[in-house]
Structure formats: C-alpha cells, structure tokens
C-alpha cells in the first residue's frame, strides 16, 4: 500500500508498522481487527489534552487509512479541519487532503473551512493556492459557490500554469453543480482556450465540451479554432511531455473529436472545415497500437456524426475493416461498433465486410455476438436478407439467454416481413423461426403470418399453390416433430382448418390428424379450443364439398376423434372451451347452408359489414316485449331519469344512489352477532 501525499518524511515506528500489517493481511477479518485496534488507539490519542502537535500530520494520515478501509474516523474530522488553518505548508496540505477525504459537500463542518479557503486562494504561495483549489473542487456546494467564485475567477490570470489549470477545472465543476452561477463566465473558457500552456487549454476543452453538448449553436464560430488546435496536435507541435506511446496528446485529440462531432451535426459549412483534419488524424492514428486505435474509433464516430462526406466515410470503412478482421476480440467489438455508425449513414460502406461480420456470429464471446447481431440488423437489405436471416436463425438455435432469443426472434420477423423476396420464403422462414424460438415468439408474429397466407397475392392460382404448400409443410411438421411450440400449433391449426382441403386429403382424415396432434403434443392441451374450431371448419368444408357432388346428403359431420374432443369439452372447466364446444355442437346440427354461412371458406380476411340497427334481432325483441320485458331506453333518456331522481327514478326501476336509512334501535336489538353462535343475527 502506498502512503498518501505528505507521508514521505520520516514517521514513527507505529505508522510503518500499521502500513506493514495491513499489507500482510490474508483476509478481511484480520484487516478489520487491526483497524479496530488502530481506531481505539487514535481515539485515545486525539482525546488527550496533551496532544503532540508535531505528530498531528501523522495522525491525520493514519485516520485516512482508517477511513479508506471502511471504518469510522468521524472523531478526527475536526482535527483535519483545524489543520487547514495552520501556517505550516505541509500541515496545511495534509489538512486539506484529509478534509477532502473525510467530508462531502453537505457536511456540517464545511462552513468552518470557507473562510480559510477564501484566504488561501489569495495566498502568495502557489502550492497553498493549488491545495485550496483542489479542496474547493471537491467540497464546495451550490450554496457556497458565490463565496469563493470571485477569487477563483481572478486566478485565471495567475502566472503559474498549474494554478490557471486548476482554476479552469474548478469553474467547470461549478458549472456542473450550478450552471446559473457561472453563466457570466462562459467567455472565460473561450479565453483560456488560447492559453500558452497546453494543460490549461485541455482543461478549457473539457468545460467547452459540456457547454457545446448543452447548446452547440453559440459555439459554432469556434470550429476554426478547434480544427486549428487539432491540426497542431496531429502535426506534433506540442511538447513531447504530452506524447503517449509516441502518439501526440491522444486524450486531447479524442476530446477535440467529440467536440467537432457535436458541432458538425447537420451543418454542412462547419463539417466541410473538418474533413481535411479528420482525414489526417485518421491516417496518423492508424498505427496498430491501442491508443492509436482509440483515436481511429473516435474519428469514425465523428465522421459518422457530422454532415457526411463520401470520401471520408470510404476512408473510415477501409480502416475499420482491419478491426473487424482482427484476432483480438476487443478490436473486433470496436470495429463492429464503428461500422454500425457508418452503416447508419449508408449501408453500402459495409457491403464488402458483410461476410467478415457474419463470421463474428460464430465467436464464443457473447457480447461480440450480440454486437454482430445489432450490426447485421442495420446492414440488411433486400439483396442480402436471405443470407443474414439464415445466419440469425442459426444464431437463434444456439442462443440460450431469453432476452437475446426474444430480440433475435423479433428481428428475424421484422426483416422477413420487410425484405422477403418471395411469399414462400417468408412462410418457410417463419416456420423455422417458430420451430426454434416458439417459446419467445410474440402472438403478433403468428398473426402476421396467418394474415399473409389468408390475404395472398391476389392471384388465385398462385395463392392456391402457396396455401397447399403451407398445408403440406404443416402436416409434415405434425408427423415428424414430436414437440412444437404453442404459437406454431396455433398457426398450424388455423391454416389446416382454413385450407386443409387443398391438400387433397378428406376432411375426416384431417380432423383425425389435428386431434392426434392435440393429444400427442406437449402444448396440445392449450390449443384445444383452436382445434375444435379447425375441425368445425373442416366439417363445414366437407359438407359443402359433399353437397356439390351430391354425395352423402351434404351433412356437416365431425370425425369420430373430433366428436370425442368436442364431447370432452362440453363440460370443460375452461369457460372459453366449454362455450365454444356448445356453440359448435349446436351449429353443426343446423342445415348445411347455415353452417356454410357461419363458417364460409377462405373468408378470414374479408371485411364484415354490420348494420348498426341489428335487424336480425327484431323477432327476438318483439318476443321479449310480448313476454313483459322492459323496452330499451337510449342513453340520453337513462341519464335524464337518473338526474330527475326521487319518485321518477324509483318508478322507472332505476338504481338508487342516495344513502341507506340509518338502522332503528329495534332492528339493532334483534340483530346482535355472536361469532361463537351459529346463524346468529340471521346468519
């Protein structure tokens, strides 16, 4: 463990012993035992009336160890505050350090150091000023900002660059805590951008970045300045002290790129000034080391955010391809993310990297596969939908996380609907998706598939072929797949019920197949209602076919298995299944013409025309009135009766909304309830 600043000078043996013991601890319990002894010792020492002032600095450092390791050192907070008032430089710096470590901006002791901070901000020793500025940045809250703001603003012209940099950082912190308090000093950040010291300039960049993100318009005129600074950095005009792995001031470059990205959004004039320097930064950053890769990534994001330049985007796509093809998963992830930024502008820039991206789906890294899925989703167009959807389906087969499966199923469904080359391909794709990810498929996807099969293309021959193909595929699924998800079973039952006769099989044979599936499939019990409806439709279709050929009298009959399914549900505990069973049984007893009218073939997508007057109910209404039923009252008449209230409301037999009468004494005497006496009080 490294001792805090201020501990470099010779300390007591106890201090070094405590540091050594902490470093040698094998577990947390040993460390806690040492810290408890240390807390007891320090509490006793600091409570002593004969406290050695010369050792106070060491005691504060030991208190910081206690606090940093999670133990309570609040008994020593006041001593840290007192140390900030000392004239000795080393004691004052340790006092400020300890105060910053112990307190937060809302602590009650903050009020005791405000006056000291005001004085130290005017001190002639720049080290004292720096210590005070560091503490201000950490501890001053919104209420105490006005007390130190003038002194901090004056320090922007201090001869020492360290002080100027810290003053800019403090003003930036003030802006984050209370933007209104420093709104009149925004111009100062612009001035510090021209400071001769790069560290002060970089501090001003951080503050301007926040201001630009909040409102870029007032800062558009700074674009030439930012471009000029970035150009100087890229050309290596800054001191070598700012280099990192031979890359000139990379962190300042990244901050500048973020600023340019915010200023160039939808602004062609501003963006045109950036193209040249962005291209240069991209070329210089492409040096195959990590910090250079970071600059390349930020250049790509900036190029994708500003008004697009085809030449620059082409350059970005070429550079990013190296990331995507890298063996390093971190670089692959960065490359995929950068490529997705470019794809948002124009998918054509990712076409040549399509197979390299697809190969990332086979990587064992889960986060990399998820990022690949995001990019493939953005890259998909009509010319590549088949390849990408096939890869997504294979990915779905191996995915285990439920959220990932839900997202993949949703994207396959959306892409198949949007870019399907043929209807047959769409049906096959959806069937495969249902079979693999049926447990997470939303009902809307199944409804869309059924609607597509029902609506068709408008060409009778092509639609008949498509529907016959779908029926054949679903019958094969029922015969070969012992376990199908519920959503796919619902689709199969609907399609076979509507168009099963197109397969050439008899209605009775199809009913038996559906009933067997309901019995055999694990999810079959949940779709019995749909199975009964499908059997009823097949019975209606079979009756209509028999009527057309003159065979069998044209009666609508269920097969033996379908009849047993219907009979079993006549007394079902499910209200829906029971009601549906009774309705189907009653309907099939009617004449074939009535059944055909109730269950017409291929009419699922036809609009229903309803007469609001409901003339079909006239006979029923007349019969009810003749038997003494009350006539229907329109809503307006009912509201009028309710408003009238009183005798008119009672005469009309309407509900009463006034309070019940209070019970009489005699009624209460005869209605005493005893919980231990059965049927007491009339119960």
UniProtKB/TrEMBL annotation:
Transmembrane segments: none annotated. Keywords: Membrane, Protein transport, Transport. GO terms for biological process: intracellular protein transport; vesicle-mediated transport. The keyword ATP-binding does not apply. Residues 42-591 form the Clathrin/coatomer adaptor adaptin-like N-terminal domain. It comes from the Eukaryota. This is Clathrin/coatomer adaptor adaptin-like N-terminal domain-containing protein. Pfam families: Adaptin_N. It comes from Mantoniella antarctica. SUPFAM superfamilies: ARM repeat. The keyword Protein transport applies. Its main location: membrane. The lineage of its organism: Eukaryota, Viridiplantae, Chlorophyta, Mamiellophyceae, Mamiellales. It is found in: Endomembrane system. Signal peptide: none annotated. GO terms for cellular component: AP-4 adaptor complex; endomembrane system.
């Amino acid at each position: 463990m490294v001792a805090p600043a201020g501990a470099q000078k010779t300390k007591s043996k106890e201090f070094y012993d405590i540091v050594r013991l902490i470093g040698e601890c094998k577990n947390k319990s040993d460390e806690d035992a040492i810290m408890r002894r240390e807390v007891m010792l320090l509490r006793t020492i600091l409570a002593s009336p004969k406290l050695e002032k010369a050792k106070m600095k060491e005691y504060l450092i030991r208190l910081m160890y206690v606090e940093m390791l999670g133990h309570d050192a609040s008994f020593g907070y006041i001593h840290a505050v007192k140390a900030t008032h000392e004239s000795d430089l080393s004691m004052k710096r340790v006092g400020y350090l300890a105060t910053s470590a112990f307190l937060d901006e809302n602590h009650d002791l903050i009020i005791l150091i405000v006056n000291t901070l005001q004085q130290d901000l005017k001190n002639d020793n720049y080290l004292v000023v720096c210590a005070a500025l560091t503490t201000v940045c950490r501890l001053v809250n919104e209420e105490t900002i006005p007390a130190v703001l003038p002194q901090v603003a004056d320090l922007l012209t201090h001869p020492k660059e360290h002080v100027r940099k810290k003053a800019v950082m403090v003003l930036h912190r003030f802006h984050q805590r209370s933007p209104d308090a420093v709104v009149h000093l925004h111009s100062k950040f612009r001035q510090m951008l021209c400071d001769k010291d790069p560290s002060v300039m970089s501090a001003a960049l951080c503050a301007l970045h926040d201001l630009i993100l909040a409102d870029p318009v007032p800062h558009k005129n700074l674009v030439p300045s930012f471009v000029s600074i970035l150009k100087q950095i890229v050309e290596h005009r800054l001191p070598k002290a700012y280099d990192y792995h031979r890359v000139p001031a990379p962190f300042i470059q990244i901050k500048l790129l973020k600023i340019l990205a915010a200023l160039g959004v939808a602004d062609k004039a501003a963006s045109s000034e950036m193209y040249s320097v962005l291209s240069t930064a991209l070329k210089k950053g492409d040096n195959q080391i990590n910090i250079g890769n970071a600059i390349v990534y930020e250049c790509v994001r900036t190029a994708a955010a500003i008004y697009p330049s085809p030449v620059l985007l082409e350059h970005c796509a070429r550079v990013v391809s190296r990331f995507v093809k890298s063996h390093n998963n971190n670089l692959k992830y960065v490359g995929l993310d950068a490529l997705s930024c470019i794809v948002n502008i124009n998918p054509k820039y990712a076409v040549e990297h399509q197979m390299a991206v697809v190969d990332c789906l086979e990587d064992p890294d889960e986060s990399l596969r998820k990022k690949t899925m995001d990019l493939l989703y953005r890259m998909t167009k009509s010319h590549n939908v088949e390849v990408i959807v096939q890869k997504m389906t294979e990915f779905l087969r191996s995915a285990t996380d439920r959220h990932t499966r839900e997202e993949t199923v949703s994207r396959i469904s959306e892409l198949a609907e949007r870019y399907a080359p043929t209807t047959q391909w769409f049906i096959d794709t959806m069937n495969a998706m249902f079979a693999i990810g049926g447990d997470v498929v939303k009902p809307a996807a199944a409804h869309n598939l059924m609607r597509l099969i029902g609506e068709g293309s408008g060409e009778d021959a092509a639609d008949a072929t498509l529907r016959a193909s779908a029926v054949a595929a679903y019958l094969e699924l029922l015969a070969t797949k012992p376990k199908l998800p519920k959503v796919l079973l619902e689709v199969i039952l609907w399609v076979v019920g509507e168009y099963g006769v197109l397969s050439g099989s008899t209605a009775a044979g199809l009913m038996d197949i559906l009933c067997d599936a309901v019995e055999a499939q694990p999810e079959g019990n949940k779709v019995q209602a749909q199975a009964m409806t499908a059997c009823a439709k097949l019975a209606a279709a079979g009756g209509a076919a028999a009527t057309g050929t003159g065979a069998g009298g044209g009666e609508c009959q269920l097969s033996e298995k379908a009849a047993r399914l219907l009979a079993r549900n006549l007394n079902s505990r499910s209200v829906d299944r029971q009601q549906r069973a009774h309705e189907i049984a009653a309907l099939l007893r009617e004449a074939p013409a009535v059944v055909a009218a109730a269950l017409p073939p291929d009419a699922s997508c036809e609009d229903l025309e309803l007469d609001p007057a409901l003339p079909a109910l006239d006979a029923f209404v007349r019969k009810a009135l003749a038997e003494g039923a009350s006539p229907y009252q329109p809503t307006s008449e009912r509201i009028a009766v309710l408003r009238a209230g009183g005798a008119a409301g009672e005469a009309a037999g309407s509900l009463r909304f006034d309070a019940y009468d209070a019970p009489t004494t005699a009624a209460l005497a005869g209605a005493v309830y005893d919980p231990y006496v059965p049927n007491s009080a009339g119960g």
